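Sequence in, structure out.
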Amino acid sequence: MYSEDDLLPLSALQHLLFCERQCALIHVEQLWAENRFTAEGNILHEKTERGGAESRRNLRIAYGLPLRSLRLGLIGKADVVEFHRQEETTWQPFPVEYKRGRAKKDNCDRVQLCAQALCLEEMLHGPVPEGALFYGKNRRRQVVRFDEALRRETEDAATRLHELVRAGHTPAVRYEKKCESCSLIQLCLPKVAGAGKQVSRYLSRMLAETP
């Protein structure tokens, strides 16, 4: 079990699985930058960021619902959690995460969603068997089943995230095609920063050498 002081952002799991160096830049070196893709994501999340709730006969919808897991050491918000009536007094949570673009080949989005489900299970003391990813490009939901394999991958990712932040070390640079879509490319400098160098130190040295 983690303490309140040890909790890390749930969204960092997606950063970790997309690129551990990106994750360290954001959550160790505290660097951030916007680009067109992050701006589009912000627009997609506008309604969920405002919070609030809606209620219909057999459905309740919570926007921007706070989440926490002391077991995984995570804290954050769910874009949307739908509560579907099962019986007169029983409601089944169903988290929905909004993403710009299309479904990814890797599991980074599914792990982030599964982490939300694990938080809900810990908070509500009940099972959350599935949720959905809503992709802005095709405006469709992709239902995600939280099976044992995905749960293990999510728990392992949470452990790695804490190890990365605790170590305080930014992984060595490795340029890949996906770097071009990353908002941190001008801070990461994947083609020039060099293996094992912290970007913050690199930038400080460059500024110090500028006349």
